[in-house]
Amino acid sequence: MFLGAHLPDEHPLEKGEAREHLGLSPGEIVLLNFGCNHIYKNFETIFEAMCDIPFNYKLVFAGRMELDSKANLPWKLAEKYNLLKSVIIDDRYIHYEEVGYFFYASDAIILSYRKDFKAGSGVLTDAAKYGIPIIASNLEDVGGTVEAYKLGLTFKAEDPLSLREAILSFHALSEEDKGVIKKNLANYAQTHSWQEVAKRHIEIYEGLIKGNHPEISNTDYSGKSA
Predict the structure, then answer these.
(1) How much of the chain exceeds pLDDT 70, in percent?
(2) Is the pLDDT of residue 219 over 60?
(3) Mind listing the domains of the chain with CATH numbers?
(4) C-alpha to C-alpha distances, 181 to 23, 36, 135, 184, nearest whole angstrom
(5) Distance (Å, rounded) from C-alpha 171 to C-alpha 197?
């Protein structure tokens, strides 16, 4: 079973409007990191990768930060890597009606996880809903989904040089290429929506009631055979 996505907005915000709301410059590349800093995330790789990046950017961290996750405290890492001027941290619970501003204001979202992370990502489905390209660790569920559905680029987990290359490659993409990624994200949100999850559950339950035994655990989050 895959993790469901919400359908794309019928009336998405313009990037300029979202950036104005958040106080972000219209001329910078904005790379988003959304959600809490749980122990399976890997923020240090992001900071290492962003050192000496040759274009103006802002790293945005939005979500409640847990102080006991000492390896993933963005303000400490920004100080360690001398990137305080390039980092914005919104350390609070982001209410649902505010989430879209962060995604629509961004050029891409970075999903950086430790090598031992085995689960899917709810933030990936949010990126699909809002049509924001993904730069993700090449792990089975997260990276596999990005690669299978062409939702962005991947990099080797915990490898800052690989992430740096992915960021530079994304920055070098043409607007046409980025437009293709956005179309793929919209298609993914449609075909992997919660409505589709519900249909799949109904199929399974009806099959069990009728004495059939459909494959329940043989599909990963990307929709491929496991």
Answers:
(1) 91
(2) no
(3) 15-209 (3.40.50.2000)
(4) 26, 26, 12, 5
(5) 34
